[in-house]
Amino acid sequence: MRLHNTLSGGVEPLKTIEPDHVRLYVCGPTVYDYAHIGHMRSAIVYDILVRHLRSSGKRVTFVRNVTDIDDKIIARAKQKGQAPAELARFFEESYQQDQRTVGNLDPDVEPRVSEHMPEIIALIERLIGQGKAYASQGDVYFDVASFPDYGKLSHRKLTDLELGRSGRLDDQEQQRKRHPADFALWKSAERGDGVWDSPWGSGRPGWHIECSAMSMRYLGESFDVHGGGLDLVFPHHENEIAQSEAATGKAFCGSWVHHGFVETKAEKMSKSLGNFITAKQCFEALEPEAMRYLMLTAHYRAPLAIDWQLDDAGTISAFPQMEEAERRIEYLYRTKLRLADIPEARIVESGPASADLAAFSDKLQRALDDDLNLPIALAELAELLKGVNDLVERALAKKGQVPRASVEAARAALGHVGKVLGLGNADGRPLLERIRGRRAARLGVTEADVAAQIAARAQARVDRDFARADGIRKELLERGIELMDSPEGTSWRID
Which end of the chain is more exposed for a tag (fewer CB within 10 A), N or C? Predict the structure, then answer.
């Protein structure tokens, strides 16, 4: 597999310290609010990376942290009259539920910052002992001048680096530092919620040290892949490298894989800008799996531009990109059901499998091996679904028959889609009924209304009043309701 490495600036073969074992660390959420679509893109991208690596025969140890100590958490908890730990745990569980709702696998380890204070303090002590960090008025700072390679990830010189970009600095803190670029490893604070004792007094860890301490705890002092958004390249990941390599004298991570932003009106979606919608808002309006599909429509390193509209109640009233993704998901599940419903009498034992259907898994692997090329993966999926529907049409044609080998190849290919892309794993019929029900509600249509029209049409056909039967079909179609006749009866859908 080849992945883009921010450290080198190019796409290069993925190399691992231990053969066939990929150790992956991804920066997880700061849990002070509900997850928005930008958070979901990050989680889905790395979920597919993990799925693909495991499908390729690799062992993967996947660690994604939970930042449950942060000034934003403390401020939000104070606003709500809650303990910071209580608020953080609520939003952590909400985030995890959102991940499962879109079909993401749980990480192998999901460490909380609050539960790793001994490792964090020990790493800070190690840096102080090596002369790489210093205490100042109860704080502890990393001395960037002690690390000559500072800036190698973001490809900048120390003198050119933008300071305070994280929004976590203030003027008083700058005065406590030797160099403006020095960053906090420990921040003093009065005793209270979210505060721990340390050799430097009461306080809490800085933003960056947590990831170094927890990745070393679970993956070792050197590991293979570090993931996160492009906004984390500097300062967060730059500082992780500096403090980690200064402490160990070893390369911290081989490959740095960063995903692009979700953008609306050409701006990064973020809580600070207020231009976001939560995952839960999307799940209420559209099928959650559509969000997963949507995240695959752009290369993971490219921006994903979206737009939506909310009604006066704050409910999504229009979301064109996700609505189209839902139609694609609907097509996937209809295809799976059509394949499952091929009459056994139309399947014959003789004949080879379709070469295109049999080759799907190899095609998907090539697409994902090429820097996780998700749009090409979706293009291969589209070709697969066309091939499966062609197979079904041949089976259902007059005197039609298809080889069992082709049917089994189609089933295996669709199963591989679920395993690697995480698509198509739900129970199809209830999913399609949910989609239809939501669309019907938006049109002001009830199941009973359509059932009555279908019954009236059936009676008209019995009465040989074909003009009336056709009129009912046309009337429903004008309302966006399509009737589908089959030997089992008449069903309907809304596009």
Answer: C
Q: Are 65 and 28 in contact (CB under 8 A)?
A: yes
Instruction: Say how many residues make up the chain.
Output: 495
What per-residue confidence (pLDDT) applies to 486?
81
Q: Nearest to residue 101, comparing CAs of 292, 296, 294?
A: 292
Q: For position 188, which CATH number holds? A: 3.40.50.620
Residue 374 sits in a domain whose CATH number is 1.20.120
Judge whether residue 162 has pLDDT over 60.
no
Asked if 253 and 222 count as a contact pair (C-beta separation under 8 A), the reply is: yes
- 315: in domain: no
> What pLDDT, in 10s, does the model give residues 441-485?
988 999 899 999 999 999 999 999 999 999 999 999 999 999 988
pTM here?
A: 0.92
Query: Which residue segment(s) compose the domain that 370 sits in?
Result: 321-420
Which runs of E-coded beta strand occur in 78-222? 133-136, 139-142, 183-188, 203-205
Per-residue pLDDT band at 287 (split at 50, 70, 90): very high
Counted domains in the chain:
3
Q: Tell me 196's DSSP state.
A: B
- Tokens read off for 330: 């609907």
55 within some domain: yes
